[in-house]
Design brief:
With 133 residues, the chain is mainly alpha-helical. It has a domain at 54-132: Orthogonal Bundle (DNA polymerase, domain 1). The protein is built from six helices and two strands. A two-stranded parallel sheet has the order 1-2. 11% of the residues are buried.
Length: 133
């Protein structure tokens, strides 16, 4: 009885393995779609985005509340937070310092600038120096 049982189990295992092998062979023989070859992008191939002139960008260190509110997704509350967090050495500091949520920043990043980042850094250093004393 044990021999018959072992024989049946072996037959089932052999049939299962052979079916797997047949499927694998059939899949290998099936025509495949050719892969796309991706060429590396050269700097000369990248088209520059049309930029807004610096004179038309809103300077986040100097803009009034009304000017800030004209920007998309900027509310009274966000405009107040931007003004309170000044000076900024980079427009990315709005997100880094959690002044503006990233979704809002993505909507305005092409419309804002820090026109004099060196002056902002100097002002920050003076503020830190004044706090140490």
């Amino acid at each position: 009885m044990k021999r018959k049982l072992v024989g049946i189990i072996c037959c089932v295992a052999i049939l299962g393995l052979s079916a797997t092998v047949v499927r694998a062979v059939e899949e290998d023989e099936a025509p495949r779609k050719p892969r796309k070859v991706v060429k590396p992008v050269k700097k000369t191939d990248v088209k520059k985005k049309s930029k807004v002139p610096l004179s038309k960008l809103v300077d986040i260190n100097a803009a009034s509340k009304a000017e800030l509110k004209k920007l998309p997704t900027i509310t009274d509350e966000l405009a107040d937070k931007i003004i309170a967090g000044r000076p900024y050495a980079s427009k990315a500091w709005l997100v880094t310092n959690k002044v503006v949520p990233e979704a809002n920043y993505e909507a305005i990043r092409g419309l804002i600038a820090v026109k004099n980042p060196q002056a902002a850094l100097q002002q920050l250093q003076q503020q830190k120096g004044g706090q140490k004393k």
